[in-house]
Queue: 4 jobs
Job 1
Amino acid sequence: DELALLDQTMQKFQAELAKPDASAQHAGSLDLRYHRLLARFSHNSIVENIYNFVIELFTKTINPIHVGVAEVHQRLHQAIMDRDADKAVEAVREHTAIWISGYQAAHNVG
């Protein structure tokens, strides 16, 4: 049931990103929902609390409509669905690099 809900949420996120007039606000909401589900489905309250705290810190800087975001999210999701920890970690690292470059570009940093 948990994997099905994650999959459904990812499909909605990808569908929004695929639209020519994709809404950054709606895509961002779906992105946060997906990540909050990941935290909840860890079944570890400490991990969930830390994850949600960190996500909340970065919420204002997240731009899901950025080059590479859809692809890296899909790779992360597939790794989770396949239960492939190595590929999941690789996707998270790539996701973080995309976030950093997007943040730097938006704030003329780096």
Job 2
Amino acid sequence: MLTEVTATRYITPLREGGSLPGLVEGDDLRAYVMKFTGAGQGRKTLVAEVVCGELARRLGFRVPRLVTLGLDPVLGLAEPERQVQELLRSSGGANLGMDFLSGALGYDPLAFPVTPEEAGRIVWFDALINNVDRSWRNPNLLVHQGQLWLIDHGATMIWHHNWPSAGTSAARPYDASDHALARFAPDVAAAAAELAPQVTEDLLAEVTAEIPDAWLTGEPGFDTPDDLRRAYARPLLARAVSVHERINGLQESK
């Protein structure tokens, strides 16, 4: 399971994302970007963040450390903005936190070119998780200490919003024509050869074990959190084998 931290101070809202994440301080005196169960798609967004973030970490990508952030809604009482008050009040309990990368800059492809190998690895990973939110308009990439970091995976694995059609949805191709790194001639074949064999049943079981039970309970069609964990793993395991053959749009972008 993810490390458990308690939020002790709400610092400020971060307005880059539509779900209004916030910068908070934890009881370990570290700063975290906090994403709330009471925002947007709620806990499913947080589950996607955990599954994709922890899978990315195990495949060798740089992602901020993830924790569960316990929130007492009383922290919102002193907030002057009503929207923030309501968000904090509706998000008591376990929320998601990610390390705040102080000094990190938003990714600019004109200022920070990447190699075809690195571009290929990221495009392949985004195809695996069906990340529709890594476009040149909104890269969801940070440059921190001269290295590229992956963030914001809430808009991935769209099949988990409709489990009965998950198999069909997960089998669809991935359109990379709008991808932030499409201009760098991503070598997705090399990435697939390196990364696909690593996406095993054991690895996905390890990754999905990081999801708090509280975010998995009560899902229609699943009796236990572990049943739902296995449902998250199945499309990723199947998709890893051949998704590189179904990535569209790169040729036109070179």
Job 3
Amino acid sequence: MGKVFMYYLSGASIFSCKKCKVHLALNDHLISTEFTGKYGQAFLFGECVNVIVGESEDRNLLTGMHVVADIYCVQCDEQLGWKYEFAKDESQKYKVGKFILERERIQKENWI
């Protein structure tokens, strides 16, 4: 497969994979905590690193039909959430290109 390169983020608060601790996103990239995922509460992020984006598929979510792709941790292959690829409803287009990370699958590290 080749060598996997990982990004290490720098900031006061970093979200990481709960299973292997690899960095995923900065608190500055957090858009909303008001989402629901497969495992409960989920967060919407504008940017996310160290993830593998799976195949796109149509999925009927709470806010309607979307084209999404599941995302996985690049290090441990844990399913973390999904990426919005396309929104059919005009009011949902703001989500396109953004990432959902499931609260159950991530942790927040605070650096002082």
Job 4
Amino acid sequence: MMDAGQNRPVLVTGGCGFIGCNLADRLAARGDSVTVFDSLARTGVRENAHWLKSRHGGRVEIVVADIRDPIPVIDAVRDASAVLHLAAQVAVTDSLSDPAADFETNARGTLNVLEAVRLHNPAAPVLFASTNKVYGRLGEETGVTRADRRYVPIADGLARGISEDMPLDFYSPYGCSKGTADQYVHDYARVFGLQTVVMRMSCIYGPRQFGTEDQGWIAHFLRSAIENRALTIYGDGYQVRDALHVNDAAEAWLSALDRIALTRGRVFNLGGGSSNAVSLLELIDEITRLTGREVRYGLADWRPGDQPWYVTDTSALAGLLDWTPKVPLREGLQSLHAWLDGRFGPSVVHKGASA
């Protein structure tokens, strides 16, 4: 627990988003005061804000502002005991349609956060939500072959997944903007001595994820099945990701924060690992088993930067923090399905609920 005696709040930028609100909830539940900083621009975030306030009341303060504006960022950072920076533009497709806006949010917005900490609160730890997209498409590096209903890497050395030693190769405007932010956060620890940690995350899923097509693909697949909508799969469906339940992700974040003396200056890959790896087609099979509904889908061209295979090597986190994923994929899917069905299922829709 951070600065419990002084009761200085933990600042969570993007704290009404999926991962952010789950982190804010965990922090408040354990007794931390939390300042949630969010522009409330995305689908579902207002609902998540109401959820946080209903659960924690005055322990959670909601600040409606944009990280592209440095003044409210400074005001929020000044009194924070720590900063969990998750505010971002998260869709590759949106980065392609408006690269400048993507850069301003992801790169410039992150620089605003770092400068506010450097100039006004340099003792505050900063944990940053990066992405596996900083490694690029990984096609040539990994080399994949098709086996049953998934791609598998050809190189024996990748059996445990992608480690932090994989060379960076930003691909797509989104990959470039997040990669730029990733490197700024890492460099501010080296050059300015800030207590920063970079979390390169892969496929986090769970309750409070609304499942739009461009972000949160597991939730999107499940929600499409619940609402009997056909899916579009970009690529061939054999591409593989490792899935990490949001409870396990939050545990890793809080452990890294609470042990900042060990984690400061480090970069970690955060995902479900090989035991929670699944292809898109395999997930469709699992959703059919879980829901009893056939999942309809069509195929479209690969998108820029789409990785045929990405599985996280989590050994760095496991070795330093004794962290390991505890929620198996099938169990995690059940929890997400229960939440989505309660939010978007036929009985809810008939009552007039909307996204």
